[in-house]
Structure formats: structure tokens, C-alpha cells
Amino acid sequence: MKVQKLLNKLVAHRGGKFYGLENTKEAFEGAIKFNYYGIECDIQPTKDKLLVVHHDLNILGFTGLNKDIVATEWEELKSLELTKIEVDKNTYKGKIMLFDDFLDLIKKSSCKAFIEMKETFNIEYVHMMFDKIEKSNINKEQIVIIANKVSFNLLIEIRKFNKEVKLQFVAYTDYTNYIDDCLNNQIDLDVSKNVYYENKKEFKTNIEKFHSHGLEVNCWVVDDLNLLSELESMGVDYITTDTIRP
After folding, report:
1. Whole-number mean pLDDT of the chain?
2. Among the listed ranges 54-63, 157-166, 167-176, 209-218, which one has the minimum average pLDDT value?
3. Which of 28, 50, 161, 199 is buried most, with the most CB atoms less than 10 Å from its CB?
4. Other C-beta atoms within 10 Å of 213: how many?
5. Are 52 and 43 in contact (CB under 8 A)?
6. 200 in a domain, yes or no?
7. How many CA atoms lie within 13 A of 229 on its CB side?
8. Does residue 114 sit within a domain?
9. Shortest CA distance to 147 belongs to which of 199, 190, 98?
10. Which residues constitute the domain of residue 201?
């Protein structure tokens, strides 16, 4: 098994899962400490229109409270303790953090920030996000903006007013329906490993297609070194992982 390049191009999925609860300050600090190439996070709006870092739209699984983040104000959210058993089988606790604080952490590091807009985003929050990025004085080359098919139209809208920022489409096995729009709007591909397993020949062909347009391909969530080696041979540019360390 030969693995070289991709071990230097690891994206920590929701931060470093061995260092703290996902999408919390502790997890992000851990990923920075171990020098991951990138750190993926998820952002969404609160009821009072602040942007916070959290994956699930509802906090039930972390707090026992059946509350949607978009329907809850920051004053309440910031007081809650989140708890989850992580991939290493240990129980971690943490707090929801503001997007502003995430940017402050990243700008002090060499890591790229892979920022996924959750399904409750709209164009108002897109402009709010870019305003915060601008005010943070972070190096713009550290920023990658991500969306899945629910919010794919927001990537198209972003490209209309920002030709420089790196964009990425989180794709599942129906990704081929979006390839032309990605190529025409300079949007990278962030594809599930299931796509590789489903049709390896087509997978490689489409990687080459993206590369021919100057675009990159990421694969998620990869936690097996043998699979990482296979993906490297296919031409994947970097991977998102829960457990592989640089």
C-alpha cells in the first residue's frame, strides 16, 4: 500500500474527533494542533439571525431538548452543554460556538476552512457569512464554501458576485445531475465514498473531467488507509476523515 500525497491533504470532519466534541472549539483546536490540511465545519442561523457552528438542525441528539437551532435564540443556545460519544468511543462535552469565533481560530492557523452552509441558509445569510469573513481579516485563500444539493442554488448565486472564492458541492450518488453546473460555475466536487464503490470507472472519468476544468475533487468520509490509497491512485485531491491523522 502506497500512501503519500493524501496524508498531507486531510480535512478534519467537523474538527478533530479525538480532541473534543464535533464542531466545538476543542475539536477545532485539536485539528489545528495536529496540522490538518483543512477543517470542515457546518454553519446555520439562529432565530435572532446569528451564525453558529453545528451540524444537526435540531439539538435533540446533543442535549435531549427538541429544539431547532433556527427557532432558538443565541442566548439560550450558548448556555447549553452538548454531549456525544465520539468515534473513539469516549464521551465529549462542549458548547455551540459562533461562526465569528471559528474564523478567529482558523485565521491564526495554516489550515483551510471548509464551511458548509446548512439547509436553513438563504441568500441573506450568505451575505452575512461573507461580511463576517471580510471583517475577520482571514486569508481568503483559507476559505472554501460548501453546500449540498438542497442549497446548491446558493453556490450558483455566490459565483455571480464572487469569482474568486473556492466553492465545493457536497455530492451523493446522484451527483452526475450537477456536473455541468459545477463545471460551468467553477465549483469543486466533494463526493461520498459510496460514489467510488458504486461505479469506479465513472468515478475516475468524472475526476478527470473536473481536473480538465482546473477543479479539485474531495472524497468523504474516509477512515481506511487502504481506501485512501485507492482514491489517491484515482486522482482524488484530498479527503475528509474522522479518524486518520496527518
Report:
1. 96
2. 167-176
3. 28
4. 12
5. yes
6. yes
7. 6
8. yes
9. 190
10. 5-55+99-241
Question: Which amino acid is residue 20, in one-letter code?
Answer: G
CATH number for position 38: 3.20.20.190
Cα separation, 41 vs 228, whole angstroms: 21
As given in the structure block, the three cell numbers for residue 151 are 442549497
User: Looking at residues 74-100, what average pLDDT do you find?
Assistant: 95
pLDDT at 173: 86
Residue 74 lies in a domain: no
Decide: 186 and 169 in contact? Cβ < 8 Å.
no
Closest C-alpha to 220, from 211, 209, 231: 231
Per DSSP, the three-state class of 51 is strand
Residue-wise pLDDT tens digits, 140-161: 999 999 999 999 999 999 999 9
* Each residue's pLDDT tens digit, 179-205: 999 999 999 999 999 999 999 999 999
Residue 161 belongs to a domain: yes
Give CA 191 to chain center in angstroms. 12
Q: Cα(61)–Cα(213) distance, rounded to whole angstroms?
A: 41
Which residues partner with 170 through β-bridges?
Answer: 190
Q: How many domains does the chain have?
A: 1
- Which helix (H) or strand (E) element contains residue 12? strand 10-12
